[in-house]
TrEMBL record:
Pfam families listed in its UniProt record: LytR_cpsA_psr (PF03816)
Lineage: Bacteria, Bacillati, Actinomycetota, Actinomycetes, Propionibacteriales
Family: Belongs to the LytR/CpsA/Psr (LCP) family.
Protein species of origin: Kribbella amoyensis
UniProt feature, compositional bias: Basic residues: 18-27
Keyword Membrane on entry: yes
Xref: InterPro entries: LytR/CpsA/Psr_CW_biosynth, LytR_CpsA_psr
Annotated transmembrane regions: 29-50, 56-76, 83-108, 128-149
Domain annotation Cell envelope-related transcriptional attenuator: ranges: 206-397
Name of this chain's protein: LytR family transcriptional attenuator
Amino acid sequence: MSRSRRAAGRRATPAAGRRVRRRGHRARTATRAIGLTLVSALVPGSGLVIGGRRKLGAVVLTISLGLLAAGAYFGLTQRDAIVALAVSPTRLLVVTTALVLLAAGWIWVVVASHKLLRPVSLSMTGRLAGSMVVGLLCFGIVVPTTVAAQTVMAQRDLVGSVFASEGNSKSATRPKVDKKDPWAGTPRLNLLLLGADDGDGRTGTRTDTVIVASIDTRTGDTALISLSRNWMRMPFPADSPLHTEYPDGYWDPKLGNVEQPEYYLDSMYDNVPKAHPGILGQTDNPGADVVKLAAGAALGLDIDYYLQVNLQGFESIIDALGGITVNINYKVPVGGDYGVGPGTNGHKLPSRYLQPGPDQKLNGPDALWFARGRYGLSDPSRQERQRCTIHALVNSVNPATLVTKYQQIAAAGKQLLRTDIPQEILPAFVELGLKVKGAKVSNVDLDKDKNFPNGRKPDYPAMRKLVRTAITPKSTTPPITPPTSPATPGTTKTPRLPQTSKPPKTSETPGTPQNLDDACAYQPAAGSS
């Protein structure tokens, strides 16, 4: 045998103990290679296995299936864990990093799989087609991952901007609770909702909207209690330093029993902290703490937290949600100013009116005027519309809107909200909010005709009894007839304001919660005049 033939034989025969590396399966055509690349993108790791990198492909395939199974498990069975993650800035940052790494790994798998699967010899057209498909696949991975990462970061920014941790915020009225189970000793959570009337052309901040939401922490059933903006003599708890300053309530006896706009409920947020700076101790929002104490004393409730809404930002969040749908029973003014009282810009007629009709879709500006419009209308009618606006807002939130417009909603939320709810108990709040969305929301009638025919001297003891009747289970509550307390006539008369229409009257017994589905229904006959 010649030397050349022996050398060839040695090259053909593998050395003893040396493993033969199996060749991968390369596609014979560019079309088949593209098809297998698509499969590798849908099932990461499969392309590596087919291309000969079996161990690496098995690892990638195992990780892919494991992530898919973990996502399904947590999504279907671990809602509490997901909620806790969604309101933790640190965890949200980890999620963002994980999304970026996942996208980078997925792109590498697609590119590596295509390189292993494509034929050795390819025409220029085949190479170009393969590169275009791989590019499109990578683009298809990058875009949704980027959107997801931006959404997570928007949520992180919202949580960090609106909800400070307990250690990084100060409140003179916030309760101490068990972070692991905040509602353990709280059968009802009382939340103060404030609508701040700050904006262009106005001096200071007045809380035009003051509503207390009393929420059953077990069922989510919620009672909404509206306080009138022109109430005087607002009380303070006996153990508060403000009670020493105003033992007979927030008013000036020297002025007599007349309308005192600078001592209305809506002026307390701005005026009391200015008159008594630091009286409540360290707090990030002294005005909100003042109103919390006064509203709680007036209604006989311990107010736990406040949620302050900037009414200008309210427009943005309504638009971000795609609008709200309400029933309009009577004409509601857009704009208009009586030209009297604090914050006025002079007498001005409404620019137009929101016309009556069922299921009216309102954008942000119109929704704001539906809630705020009062030219020619009474405060109780405006309070009812504000409750109906909250009801419509809760009902308008749906998963599809949240997914498609969440970044816009989060950006609006940063400008909209201010609160003393700490980050540490946000998971419990989100869980409670889910209960509220599916529970009964009702209105508590405080009986304007008997208890506050005007704002000069409201009968707060009678209103406290009505509230206690409304939020206590009826099986354990004896019927209570609230005492009447006629208002003391004033030495001056409040000017009679024009009525553009009559708001609907309800036949509910005072103190009996009225379901907002009924209160906010279309009732055109009741609103016509």
